[in-house]
Amino acid sequence: MTRRFRSAARSVGAILLAAALTGCGTNGRSDTDPNVGKDGETFVRPSLTVYMGNSPAANAIRSLLPEFEASTGLKVDLTSFTNEQLSQKLSVTLAAGSKSPDVFMIRPLEELNRFHRSGWLQPLDDRVASDADYDFADFSESAVETVKAEGTLSAIPLSTEQQILYYRKDLLAKAGLSVPRTLDELETAARALHDPGGGVYGYVARGQRNALVTQLSSFLYSEGGGFQQGGRATINTPESVRGMKRYVSLLKQYGPPGVFNMGWQQAAGLFAQGKAALYTDASAIYTIAIGSDRSSIADRVGLAMFPAGSAGAKPYNITAWALAMNAGSTNKDDAWTFIRWATSKDVVMRSQMLGNPGARRSVWDDPQGVSGFPQDYIDAVTESMRVGVGHDRPQLINVGEARDIVGEVVVRGLLDEDVGEAADKANQEFQALLDREKSR
């Protein structure tokens, strides 16, 4: 798959870059030399400072930067950080009122509300509304939902992920079972395929208190529940409790021992080793979950849409990373030129061909844009983009604290305590957290 991405990206590179830069201003510089004006005077090249998290999206953009700089005359100083380093760096720098960085990557569901409330994010509504050629309507609606704070467009989607079902094709076939399309069918299949003595568990997913919340979300939505509605906590509604009980039942009855210690790395690793028949988690980790070409199960893994509950199939479809503009930047026009380019149809195409799943529907509809992905992955992602929910965790500033509160319900259930009672207690704690934030 990697070879196909690289080959395709090289073959279309020159053509796509020219189109991607359409509409990106050059501030009066010569078409042939960005450092020389049209009447012969010399320019000092404007510069932008950009912070990014380590990710396929950042890698793809970095690889295209020399061409962008040559075509626009803008010098881009791009620095990459780990996820937590980036969050800490931005928090300190922006709180100090720094004009730099001009542009930065952000994890919307972790940081958007806090950064927006702090006044650090430049609203982008006017930019996209006044630029018909940019075609903002091409972005998935649920991905856009992720990057709005109090109704304001605060960033542009850069990469997406959805919750999907990973399954062992050979084990389902041997048991005479079809691919689970509903949560009832998922539990039936997990029961039938659960064979600890034979080294295969029926189901695996995240069990760590904080980490599991994002994957629990699709169970809640598909049963008609959710974390909150407006300013009210809703994790103890009958619908939300039903979704939690589903998750608890699958892990407790058909999961591996030690599930309390499983984040995505441990769960994906166990599935890739052939030790679980069914697994639900993020689409972005599919190359890890299915194992390498040398693994014993790589050619036996199928991918499917998240199964439907009583409210239908409602997996999350989120913006995992987005590009935002510093409200304090003094280079806002150039900052927009960079954001516009990095999220344009053609650069999203090139980035996706290098392995970064983008948020533009036109790219997913283009055979070239999906040329390196398995067909069942394409089907699951495109359908999830159509019906998905734009958040996979509680929506507030103190996301980490809220995740601990919600995740504790599942942990209590795994310890054989009553899920409904645990949800009532957690709902009170979550409501108190929401109220504290509202009063500030």
Question: What keywords describe this structure?
Answer:
two-stranded antiparallel ribbon, 440 residues, alpha+beta, disordered N terminus, 11 strands, D-Maltodextrin-Binding Protein, domain 2, 2 domains, 7-stranded mixed β-sheet
Overall mean confidence score, pLDDT: 90
User: Considering DSSP H and I runs of 4 or more, what fraction of the residues is helical?
Assistant: 40-55%
The CATH homologous superfamily of the largest domain is termed: Periplasmic binding protein-like II
- Uncertain segments are 1-35
Largest sheet: 7 strands, mixed
> Secondary-structure element order, as H and E?
HEHEHEHHHEEEHHHEEHHEHEEHHHHHH
Rg computed from alpha carbons, rounded to a whole number of angstroms: 23 Å
At the fold tier of CATH, the topology name of the largest domain is D-Maltodextrin-Binding Protein, domain 2
Structural class determined from secondary elements: alpha+beta
Number of strands: 11
In the CATH hierarchy, the architecture of the largest domain is: 3-Layer(aba) Sandwich
Global shape: globular
Can you walk through the features of this model?
The relative contact order is 0.17. A hairpin with a 2-residue loop joins strand 4 and strand 5 (152-153). This protein has helices at 2-20, 56-72, 83-95, 108-117, 125-129, 141-146, 169-174, 183-193, 213-222, 238-254, 264-272, 286-289, 332-342, 345-353, 361-365, 375-387, 399-414, 419-439, and strands at 47-53, 75-81, 103-106, 148-149, 152-153, 156-168, 228-229, 232-233, 278-282, 301-305, 317-325. Helices cover 46% and strands 13% of the residues. The chain folds into two domains: 2-160 and 319-387, D-Maltodextrin-Binding Protein, domain 2; 162-316 and 391-439, 3-Layer(aba) Sandwich (D-Maltodextrin-Binding Protein, domain 2), CATH 3.40.190. Helix 9 crosses helix 10 and helix 10 packs across helix 17 (399-414). Strands 1, 2, 3, 6, 9, 10 and 11 form a seven-stranded mixed sheet that branches. Strands 4-5 form a two-stranded antiparallel sheet. The protein has a two-stranded antiparallel sheet with strand order 7-8. With 440 residues, the chain is α+β, with helices and mostly antiparallel strands. Mean pLDDT is 90; it is low at 1-35. InterPro entries: Bact_solute-bd_prot1 (IPR050490), SBP (IPR006059).
